[in-house]
């Protein structure tokens, strides 16, 4: 397979650029949607850990 970039038309370059831009935007949106859930999970993890520490102190 021998690809020659000179044979790609301007319309094909534009289509490729648009496809890459859409992919990047989609990935960014998915990341932003997931971020608050990750933060909440980390906070809950910290609260549960602290709760276990307090529980251990009262058992002693």
Notes on the structure:
The chain has 60 residues and is mostly helical. It has one helix and no strands. The model has no long low-confidence stretch (mean pLDDT 84). Keywords: Membrane, Transmembrane, Transmembrane helix.
How far apart are the termini? 72 Å
Q: Strand content of the residues, in percent?
A: under 5%
Which structural class fits the helix and strand makeup? Answer: mainly alpha
Ranges where pLDDT stays below 50 over 5 or more residues in a row are none
Q: What is the H-and-E element order?
A: H
Instruction: Specify Rg, calculated over alpha carbons.
Output: 25 Å
Secondary structure: helix percent = over 70%
Mean pLDDT: 84
Write out key terms for the chains shown.
60 residues, mainly alpha, 1 helix
């Amino acid at each position: 397979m021998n690809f020659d970039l000179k044979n790609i038309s301007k319309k094909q370059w534009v289509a490729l650029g648009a496809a890459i831009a859409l992919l990047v935007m989609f990935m960014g949106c998915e990341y932003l949607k997931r971020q608050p859930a990750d933060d909440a999970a980390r906070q809950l993890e910290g609260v549960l850990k602290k709760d276990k520490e307090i529980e251990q102190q009262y058992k002693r």
